[in-house]
Amino acid sequence: MLLKEHRFKFFAGTETYFFTIEELVNGLAGWPHRFRIKLPASSGSQAKTFYGESCYDAAEKAAQFLATNSRQSGKRRLNHLAQGPPPSPPQKSSTSGIRVRI
After folding, report:
1. pLDDT digits (tens, 9 = 90+) for 44-86
2. d(CA 61, CA 70)
3. Is the CB of residue 52 less than 8 Å from the CB of residue 61?
4. 13 vs 26, which has greater pLDDT?
């Protein structure tokens, strides 16, 4: 079995989560869809596995689960779902006063 990993960052209120989505590239597995994410067990819930037809679909299902099962009071909603590592902090160029994001 050959798997490819995709990473997402998810914000729910003040909580930040990092998702690793597995993509079944080659091999036999009993997965209903090509993409899967496993959420570990916590004190308030059992371990969960979500599948999706796309990477984003699997991440969205896991994010919605976390948002609806959040212990936070007040707003429980999906704030942001972005693929990839967090952006690097702004850096100041030594030749000019312009800040550049890399």
Report:
1. 778 999 999 999 999 999 988 887 876 543 444 444 455 555 4
2. 14
3. yes
4. 26
Q: Do 81 and 89 form a contact (C-beta atoms < 8 A)?
A: no
Measure the CA–CA gap between 32 and 101, rounded to whole angstroms: 40
Amino acid at 66: L
Nearest to 64 by CA among 22, 8, 102: 8
Please write down the HEC assignment for all residues of the chain.
CEEEEEEEEEEECCEEEEEEEEEEEECCCCCCCCEEEEECCECCECCEEEEECCHHHHHHHHHHHHHHCCCCCCCCCCCEEEECCCCCCCEECCCCCCEECC
Looking at per-residue pLDDT, the higher value among 32 and 92 belongs to: 32
Return the residue matching tokens 């000019």: 96
Number of other residues whose CB lies within 10 A of the CB of residue 7: 14
Does this model's pTM top 0.70? My answer is no
